[in-house]
Design goal:
The protein is of the alpha/beta class. The protein has a 6-stranded mixed β-sheet with strand order 2-1-3-5-6-4. Strands 9-8-7-10-11-12 form a 6-stranded parallel β-sheet, sandwiched between helices. It starts with 7 loop residues before the first helix and ends with a helix. The chain binds NADP nicotinamide-adenine-dinucleotide phosphate. NADP nicotinamide-adenine-dinucleotide phosphate binds next to helix 6, helix 7 and helix 11.
Length: 286
Amino acid sequence: MTASISSHSEQNVQHAPLAGVIGWPIAHSRSPRLHRHWLDRYDLPGDYIPIPVRPEHLSDVLRMLPKMGFVGANLTIPHKETALQIADIITDRAALIGAANTLIFHEDGKIHADNTDGFGFIANLKQHAPDWSAARGAAAVIGAGGAARAVVASLLESGAPELRITNRTKIRAEQIKAEFGAKVVVYDWAQIGNMLDGAHTVVNATSMGMTGKPPLRVPFDALQSSALVTDLVYTPLMTDFLTEAQTRGCTVVDGLGMLLHQAAPGFERWFGQRPEVDDALRQAVL
Ligand code: NAP
């Protein structure tokens, strides 16, 4: 990272700290429930609110929030990429991914942008599949959007020896190869089944399978039962993709834990308490 980030408690702010999630629309976000659960659990002063902001107003709002008592914010669609153009300090991982999901407002007014999606992705796998290690074999990532970029960065950082990727729009996968280097191998969308041959980690990073969208249909014949299969989609928790992998004997991990874990670093920096990701939190968010 380019700089260390002091926690809110170190900043000695005189008012109850505020944080929130900024998106357009924002009503669907589960982040307020998540952070309020932690505020209640640790009996901390402060609040976390949903903030609807139109794309053209993001810059003005971000400059105003620190003056209103906000110590930071999460970002969701459509602001994750634009925020990097507004931030004053950008962590290396946010720059590599090309998007920010967590902002810390410094006392001098500077906006610090980070991306914790990859951290959340790996922490979820470690929690629910403790024997899994990225370094043990090739990873296969389906999708090449913003979330896929965070997944690719974190799998490579965790030691994946080969990173296979496919995407409906191939040029986005090729762009990832151009940026992330020689370990990345691009497969045609039609070769998705071949991509799974011998893969140790398989990830759905598309939005396919979400409630209201068609399921992601993948020929699983080449999939080994020793593979770990995970889905970033968490509504529903068990997607058809995960159910099919489970029937083939694979270890499967749903995407909700990624959402919970990605929130922890921001909460710690804003409210000064390292929060726990446990079943009570899962139930609160569900
Ligand atoms: P995004 O940037 O919009 O990317 C969407 C991806 O889905 C692209 O690869 C896109 O392919 C693919 N896709 C969409 N419709 C498709 C279709 N009909 N057929 C094939 N591919 C299709 O979105 P994102 O931010 O990366 O998010 C992707 C998913 O991850 C979403 O469901 C999101 O909710 C989830 N997510 C979960 C977490 C978590 O904490 N669990 C965190 C972040 C995101 P094209 O490039 O061809 O359009």
